[in-house]
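Hi Y.,

Following your request, here is the sequence exactly as I used it, all 200 residues.
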Amino acid sequence: MVEDLQKKHKLLEEDYAHLRVKYEEVLQDLDKRAATIPQGQMGQGPSYKPGRGFRVPKSEYLVLENQHQPVPAGYCKLGWARSTVVVLVEWKEGFDRKIKKKTPSYKVKKMLDAFFDPWELQGHNSTTIKEAQQPVPQIIEAIRVYATDELGLKDSDFTSIFNSKAGTSKRAMFTIDPERAVPKKIKRKNLANTQENLTA
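Below is the corresponding structure, written out as tokens. Let me know if you'd prefer a different format.
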């Protein structure tokens, strides 16, 4: 009995040592990547994973201070030259492969999925989202440029697609988490406070 416990203890120690080494390697990798990134704002995409339907991997992105700032190694601009949002090249290539045969409208909606959770889009439209805290408006603008410059859509097309997606997100919230769902009728002047309370 004692011998068995000693063996298990030894195995646990070995597992811990292995995990510790991996942890240190991850930290070192993050430090190296951070050192290659110029001043800007780092972020990562949503945590929500739909129970069904087509899923896209969440994004890891960097918001540059302006569109002329150098793009870090391993990143590419989302929305081509006019954008201030950059994403990992590996992520963008994987995203493009996964939705290659989809329609432009579908691609835009999935790009929104990669950056936002339903509770971040609910209650918004293409106008009110521009009033949200940064970097949200910058990300939305980058996705708009992606839609027009890369997918060939019109600005009016993007507006319609975004409003449709926001509406879908609002309806979905009553299933995902009714307590956090924006009321069906809400005054625009109270929208910012409502969104702030939902994300608190």
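The helical segments are 2-35, 89-98, 104-115, 118-121, 136-150, 155-176, 191-199.

Thanks again,
Q.
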